[in-house]
Each structure stands twice: as C-alpha cells, then as structure tokens.
Amino acid sequence: MKFINADLLRFLTVGVGSNLLNFATYLLLYSIGAPLFVASAAGYAVGLLLSYHFGRIWVFGRKFEMEKSNLVRFLAVYAMGGIGMSLIIELMVKYFEWNHALSWVVGAGFAVINNYVGLKKLVFNKGLKE
Description:
This protein is mostly helical. Helix content is about 80%, strand content about 0%. The chain is built from four helices and no strands. The protein is elongated. About 30% of the residues are buried.
C-alpha cells in the first residue's frame, strides 16, 4: 500500500494553493486592523471557494456535478474546519501567547485533517473506491 494515494496528493495540491490564498488574505486583513477571528474566517472563506471548485472537478479523480446536497455537505464540512481553525488560532494567541502566524499553521493542520476526511467520506464519495 502506498503511503500517499492520488486523491490525497491532489487534495494536498489544491490545499496548498487554497491555503496560500487563505494565508495571504488573513495576513492582509490582520495587517489592516481586522480582528484575528474575522481575518482568519475571511481567509478561510476565500480558500473555500478555490477548494470547492477543484474538489468538485479534480481532487477525487472524477468530476462531480454541482448538486445542492453536495454543496450543503461541503459547506458543513468546511464550516466545521473553519470554525475549529479560527478558534484554535484565537485560543493559541490569546491564552498561550503564541505568534499569530504559528497559530495559523496549527489551526490549518486541524482544518486539513477535518476537510480531507469530511470530503472523502461525506461529500465526494459517490463511486469512490475505498
């Protein structure tokens, strides 16, 4: 068994691009005075748009049609990841006094795991081989 399969590799590729856009948005908003939670949530939303598009057409090896139920499940998975990520950042900065950029990386780690498992099991699972 390979350690990393094709769908995970595609997910990580899209994730890197989405997170770069997410992080750039986060830094920009934070640098102009937006609260940490707002900057984090806004960056996450921007990355979300890129993730949905490429998740639907490429990540799991086949194109998935845009369906309302898929979109709702996608948004639920990413909402859970985004809220968790934002709360982790907020807690690490305010209560543990970690640097905001390092806190973002830890929060993003949570979101990556949440989002991959959620997309694979709940959103883009029709016709996928286990």
